[in-house]
Write a structure and sequence with these properties.
The chain has nine helices and seven strands; from the N terminus they run βαβαβαβαβαβααβαα. The chain has about 260 residues and is of the alpha/beta class. It has one domain: 3-Layer(aba) Sandwich (Rossmann fold). It has a seven-stranded parallel sheet with strand order 3-2-1-4-5-6-7, sandwiched between helices. α1 runs parallel beside α2, α1 packs across α7 and α4 runs parallel beside α5. It is globular.
């Protein structure tokens, strides 16, 4: 079976990942959608294929499991899918004191937010470089720019993603492969619910995931770079750089400290 160029999106069944999929399909890009929920993923793939006339492959996978990234790449080879755009979007967070959150959940967070992202990038980059087209979009967070107590592991994983992505961008510059380091603030997804963050009062309100995905894709078309959607988010990153990091951590602790014992919001 001849290979066709695809955009691969992890965490594609909802939120920002779903918005990436819809935007790319509308631009007539073939897609590989990856998420844990097989039924929802299959339905979404069928919808996009019927609406836009593109090839959409759905692969159910839990990328937090050891070896899952390698198995996914092998599945791509079997299906004849060559990836020229990688969107590392899958990830999750959790709120609470470090010792009160299960180590299993936090280890899975590190495995998904960091290990799977690095492994997928490592495995797929040689083909992207050989074709001299496409790019990489890594979804990080404004939480990556400072320590965030009571979501300590999550913010640390995103600090890794931001640093990794910006370093990778320079390595790939001679090959003409753009890398987008996407750092959204509060976004209208199920992130806060699934991570037990409670209702958050975000200055300026939550931004739409469509807005976040659009900003990343626009940057990709213009050579990549660090993308922090919305002016208020950009300003917050700049301001916290001017304040001692210990002070920033103390301020963040007041915002994210659980309101009841046991780490519950």
């Amino acid at each position: 079976m001849p290979e066709e160029p695809f955009a691969l999106i992890t965490g594609a069944s909802g939120g920002i990942g779903e918005c990436f999929a819809r935007a790319l399909a509308a631009g007539r890009r073939n897609l590989v959608l990856v998420a844990r929920s097989e039924k929802k993923l299959q339905q979404f793939a069928a919808e996009l294929a019927a609406k836009h006339g593109v090839r959409v492959e759905a692969i159910a996978a839990d990328l937090s499991v050891a070896g899952a990234a390698g198995s996914l790449v092998e599945e791509l080879r079997e299906r004849g899918c060559s990836v020229d755009l990688l969107v590392n979007n899958a990830g999750f967070g959790a709120r609470g004191e470090l010792w009160k959150l299960t180590i299993e959940r936090q280890s899975a967070m590190v495995a998904l937010n960091i290990n799977a992202l690095v492994e997928l990038t490592y495995l797929l980059l040689p083909g992207i470089i050989a074709r001299r087209r496409g790019g990489v979009i890594n979804v990080s967070s404004t939480a990556s720019f400072q320590p965030v107590p009571y979501t300590t592991t999550y913010s640390a994983t995103k600090a890794f993603v931001t640093s990794f992505s910006m370093g990778l961008a320079e390595e790939l510059r001679p090959y003409g492969i753009p890398v987008v380091t996407l750092c959204p603030g509060g976004t209208q997804t199920n992130f806060f619910v699934s991570g037990h963050y409670g209702v958050r009062d975000i200055p300026g309100g939550m931004q739409a995931p469509e807005e976040v995905a659009a900003a990343a894709l626009d940057a990709l078309e213009h050579g990549g770079g660090l993308v922090i959607p919305r002016l208020i988010n950009k300003l917050s990153v700049i301001v916290q750089r001017l304040i001692p990091r210990q002070t920033v951590a103390k301020f963040a602790a007041k915002i994210f400290r659980p309101r009841s014992p046991g780490g519950s919001p």
